[in-house]
Amino acid sequence: MKPNELLRLVWINITQNKFKTVLTSIGIIVGAATIVMVIAIGKGGQADVAEQFKNLNAGAIDISYDGGDRERGGQSAEASPGGGNFSGGEGGFSGGRGRSPDEAGGGVLNGDSFPGGRMDFFGGGSDMEERINQENITLDEDDVDDIETFVSGISAATISYSTRSSVEGGELDEAQTYTIAGVREEYAQMSNLSLAVGEFIAESEDENKDKVCVLGASVAEEIFGSAIDAYGSVIYIDSRSYVVNGVLSSMGTVASGISPDDSIFIPYATGVKYLVGSSVSPTITVIAEDVDNVEQVSKDVAKVLAQTYPNAEFTYEDAGSKMEAASASNEILTMLLIAMAAIVFVVGGIGIMNVLFVSVKERTNEIGILKAIGCSRKNILFEFLLEAAAISLIGGILGVAASLCAAPVVEYLGVRVELSAAAFLIALLFAVITGTIFGFYPAYKASRLVPVEALGAE
């Protein structure tokens, strides 16, 4: 049998009962659509992870304390050094901020020891002990200075916090609650923030506790309608007026636990004075110069903080670990969806195999006639294999079309979808392969029929 005759025969058998063909390929339709959506959702998840962390420096380390009632210092200078002054050499702890790194078992500037220094006690006695024991642990600018002085391998460090407060002004009909972030000047560069208009918080504004602010893109749009209208305007945070010095470009990301688009940034000291007071719970962010050295930098920072807070346990989170965790979660979800798609394909393939078995039974006389007029076993095998592949291909095409219809629905539900031509081709390939594999055995059985028996079958 010539190839064109074989293809014509396959086409006639498929088009004779279009409804049956579609029903046979339902499993393949669902499987192909699932494959397309799996790849699209997986790519969307990867894009989300990349976008979510694009403004995070890979070497960023966030240090925070959640103990709440832990006591600062924890021990008196007399019992275990922690309330004295580390002096001598380059830079040092001062004002009773810790114990000597030498006495504490080694420093961290170069991984071995702090540069020089000795512990001088300025007395203190019971008054100092009582003050230390009554103070709660709160990270502050002095801790940032200590880290910058005694930890090597870091390019920058800053401190920030976030809180929720009522905001009025602009086009708001009533007060709305927004995230207020207290930050310092270097925060913008460390978090890769860019401004659409205006300027970020300046060091002088932080020192003077000026009531100025920088709005995230979404906040500016919600309150004023646009970045241009927001710039230079006044908003009221906790009933105090703040001048809008700038508006950020849209980021759609998270930095140090703060979402820039949905936040209002104010000078760190301003927020401490007017909003959070002593209840502030800040985060110190440190940038390691070498991404591969993040773990060592974290250990060194821990040693420095242990001098000031010997009994405290801080939380250390680095951007790399966050990205890996998010990517791992996305990969697990993708694998689960792929497993589901594989199961659907198997079910669809079994459906095709069953229908072909029935088709072989129904067309036994036809097979006998074909063999009687000279068709070889190979011709019969190829005919049924081509039918199975064609049914699968039709199912794959319909599945791809179904995925195009499903994508907007999935996006409406809040899941990012990234459709691609590669996903369509992979779905069609899987469909054809599945149909061919599961159609082989029925085709083989058809090709092995004895012509005389096939002609005599009812």
What report would you give on this structure?
The chain is an alpha+beta fold and 458 residues long. The chain folds into 3 domains: 3-52 and 324-456, no CATH class; 66-153 and 289-313, no CATH class; 162-285, no CATH class. 51% of the residues lie in helices and 16% in strands. The chain is built from 16 helices and 12 strands. It has helices at residues 3-15, 18-24, 26-52, 125-134, 141-150, 187-190, 203-207, 217-224, 227-230, 268-276, 294-308, 319-362, 364-372, 377-412, 421-447, 451-456; strands at 60-64, 85-87, 118-120, 154-169, 176-183, 195-198, 212-215, 234-237, 240-248, 263-267, 283-288, 315-318. A 6-stranded mixed beta barrel has the order 4-5-10-7-9-8. The chain is elongated, with a radius of gyration of 35 Å. The chain starts with a helix and ends with a helix. The model is unreliable at 68-134 (pLDDT under 50).
